[in-house]
Structures are given as structure tokens and as C-alpha cells.
Amino acid sequence: YRVDTGSGDPQDRQVRVPPGVTVFDAASWNGIAIDSTCGGHGTCHKCKVRVEGDALPITRHDVKTFTSDQIAAGWRLGCLVKATRDLRVDVPPLTTRPKAATVGVGRQVILRPAVQKRYVELDEPTLADQRTDLVRLTEAVTDLEFTADLHAIRRMATVMRQADWKVTAVLVDEVLVDVEPGDTTDTQYAIAFDLGTTTVVATLLDLATGTPVAVASMLNKQQPFGGDVITRISATMMDPSSLGRLRDAAAATLQELATQVLTEGGVDPASVYEVAVAGNATMTALALGIDPEPLGVAPFVMSVAQPPSVPAADLGLALHQGARAMLFPALGAYVGGDIVAGMLASGMDRDKRCRLFIDVGTNCEIVLSDGDTILSTAAPAGPAFEGGAIRCGMRAADGAIETIKLGDTVELGVIGDVEPKGLCGSGLVDAVAELVKVGLLDASGRFVPNDDAASVAPALADRLTAVGEERVFVLHRPSPDAPPEECVYLSQRDVRELQFAKAAISTGWSLLLEELGLEHRDVQQVLLAGSFGSYLSPASAVRIGLVPKLPVLRIVAAGNVAGEGAKMALLSRREREGANLLLEEVRYVELSDRPDFNDAFVDQLGF
Ligand code: FES
User: Fold this and answer.
1) Does domain 2-96 fall into CATH 1.20.120.50?
2) Which of 277, 292, 314, 605 has a beta carbon 3.0–4.6 Å from 285's, enabling a disulfide?
């Protein structure tokens, strides 16, 4: 994206999204604001962008919006252009100050943040008018009621007098947190955090316009304590000092990201008045310094489902002195605030369609709504999708094979376009799905005998070989005569690992479907959420049975919905309230104690 901010100095930004995501969504997920009042639905005709390179499809909306010369020059409506290859997109400056913002999966949010600023010109006190400074201010702000915190009261007298009684009242959740000299209503920011076990993402939001200003992500600094929530909980059980250190690590991660987005956006930390944090129950507990041990042992009880709002400083954040932090409520120990945020961002509580939401990860969270009832559950999928327990597995980083097509040749899509080093989760799913498709893996997940391989896929048969005793399929040879152990390959055991992971997940959603008396075909949309889920190939996910057997068009990459939910909570108090309502609406279904779980699991193992 080449973003013209109107300052005369366009910014170049590179983003990576799953194929098929619109240019508008790709921008919005990555903190790039494109004009819009319809929220990406193709009706406002404001999301004008210019796409360079080969001619793109033209829609009737483009024809209505642009002249033929503009169309020839690459102008299109950004919400109708899909990124199916690398694109270079010019984004013009924003023309309107929006009253609504587009967030999450096409959600339009009317701007009504908890942070409110009001510029007022006050009457100077006289002997005849001896109202206190605070009464003077509360009476001047006619549309809001509020109380004041001590910091604001301390500053008030000086600021009002020095600023000649022209001041801006800063309110967070109906509390006056500051009085600023002059009119500062255009300067109000918040930061949305997706506090993941592996990766943490921060988005700096301009609350005056609802637009994202900068996005940054980094690995959670708690990594040295273990890769998943269970190892981090165990760390606190083995060494009592770990809780404090884990909390410090969370704080350091949040602060470093805050500094990054503020620097990138050129925003003063003192202009950030609120943050929202969407994390799973363990990450939330650790960030607040709450002992997570009960989350790790049966009966898996949380200290609190709905954490109170706290000063942002309690999370280690150096922002405005009165800045507050809201932490998303959780449905249970294993369906946490990140999933509640995801439900909010994808409108699971609003949509009347039958929808299935799957956040694929080590712990996979599943939500099913038939338009009336919403059920949720968690399935322990294990580390396979993150490259763990897979021989050549790796995280989705440079060198990871992320897409695979098998035919007469092997076509690999590699992150960063470098020499393949390993296989990430989406590559793993593709590899197995393609091997099933060409007939080299049978329905039970076993590699077929070599003789059969030669007849079903002659061009690929020589790739079916062995490393030690174990049969493997070679995906990439670094040199023509490299021995299999030096290659990137998929082993028989890797296939088993994937089978267990996908069976855990598909058992989860199939039991939820059963609970509501629904069939596969009743599901109108499957939302694949999270950093891994979004990159899965829908066709491969269907082929291996990770999602119900549905036309691929019904399977949608939802992006980082936890982060989007956190943005929504900052932009709208009403939406924030919606997150709390979800706690009452959603019923959690415990799978592990169901008598039919094992049979269902075994049924789901095959392809
Ligand atoms: Fe309104 Fe594209 S966002 S038409």
C-alpha cells in the first residue's frame, strides 16, 4: 500500500493477507484507513483506490463510480477488489471524518467511545459567581454526566486559569481524567491489544475518526516460560516467583508494542486514554498478576469472568496518567476473552444465519450459532498446527512452506519466497489434503504401498521414500541428490499428528451440530479465525474434514478477530456492552465428560 496521508509524504506499507481477502479488509486489518461509510459493502462508493499492474476485474459499481480513463488507470472500489496475487495499491487521503468505522468481519461501528472530549469556554468566576471549578465545568458540558478523578482535580485550577478558561474536558467512562488547555478534541487515541499466547498485536486507534493509525506485533515475551498456556501455568506452580516474572514479561511486551505504534504514528503517549486487551483466560490472569493455577487443573475455574477496568499503568503501560484498561470477559477457562472479542467482531450474536466459528490453535475454540442459540466449546488440538510435533514443522515464518499443489509436479508456496526450510500449519494441512487427493494417502491416513503409488501418481512416486524406518513424502529437495533426511518432508507420524488434531476439532463441531439438531449442510458460513486459521486453504480444510463438507465459498478467513473485537470495544461502549451480554447468551458445552466423545473422535480420524 502506498498511503497518501495528505501530508505530502506518502507512506509505503507492506502487508500479507490470505488470498481472496479484499483490498479494503486487508488495509483495515493492518491499520490502513480507506474512506468508507458503508463498511465495505459496495454501496457508499467511497473506498477508491488505484491498483497498479495487470488489469483487474471491473464491477458495475466501478463503472458507476469511475470514468473509463480512471478504470483504465487502475481505479477500483477497494472493497470489491480481491487480493489473489501481490498487488500494489495507492490509497488517497481520507476525505470525510467518519461517524462510523468498519471493524472485524464487515462490522460497522458507530463511533461512541468510552473516551469523550468536550471543548468548553467557561465563564470566569466573579464575586457574584463563586461556583467551584468542577461545577463550572460540569455545567458547561451539557450532554454528559461525570465525576472527576484526583489527577484531574489537581490540574484543573491551574489549567483553567492559564488557558483563559478555554479548556477540553477528557472523560473516560464518565470519569473526568484530565482538563487540557485549549481545544484538543482532535487528539484522542487508544490502543487495542490482542494478547496471544504466541504473538501479541497492538493497533493504535484514532478515536476522533475511528481509524487505525499504526499496527505492530511481536512474540509474547513470556515464551521462555513455555510455548502454551499449560506450560506457563506449570511454571507458576513449580516456582512461586514465576507469576511475578510472567506478569512483568506481559507488561514488557505490551509496553514495547505501545512504544512501537506510538512512534510509528507520531503520537504522544499522553494522548492515549484507554486500552483494550483481548486475551485467553490464562494470558488475562497473568497480565493482571492473578494466580492461573486453578485454570490448569480440574474443574478449571476462573478467579473472575469479567475483570474490572483497571488503570493502564497496572498493566505496565506508560500512557496518559488517567488511562484505563478494559480486559475482555471470558466464557470459561478455555474459551477466553480473545474468543469473546472474536465473536463480537464477527457478529456471532447478531447474525441470523447458522454460522460456525473456529479458532484453530493448540487449544481450538469452536462457537456454533443457529441464529438463536449460541454454543461454544474448546478442543485440545495440540501443537501440530503451529509446527510442533511435526518432523519438519516450523512456525509461519520466512522459509515455511504454506501452500502445496500436487499434480505432475510439486508446486510450493513459501513465505518470503526463499528456499523452503520447513512446513507450517497451513502447509501441513495442504500437504495431507493434496496427498489424499492424488491417492498417495488412503482414507485411514496411511501412505499407500510403493507399487500402488507408481500407478496412482507416477510423477510423484519417487518422492515416497523413507527416513530410517518411517515412510515419508519428500516435498522439497535442497539439491537433486540430497538424501531424504536433508529434505523437507512429511512423515507418516506427521500425518497421524494431524489426524489427531483435526479429529479433536471436528469432534468438537460435530457434537455441537448434534446438540442443536443440525447437519453439515445447514451451516451457512464457517469463519476460520486466528493467525493460523485465516491462512488455511478452505478446499484443503474441507478435504481433510477439518470443517464441515460445504462449498468452499461458505468458508471465510476472518483474520485477527480478537484484535478487531478489541478495536470495537474501544470505538463503541455499546459494542463493549455486547461482549458482556455474550457471557449470558453463550452456553459452554464440556466435551470431555460426554460418553459419546470417544466414539465420535474415532469416527473423525479418517479422511
Ligand atoms: Fe463502501 Fe466500498 S466501502 S463501497
Assistant:
1) no
2) 292
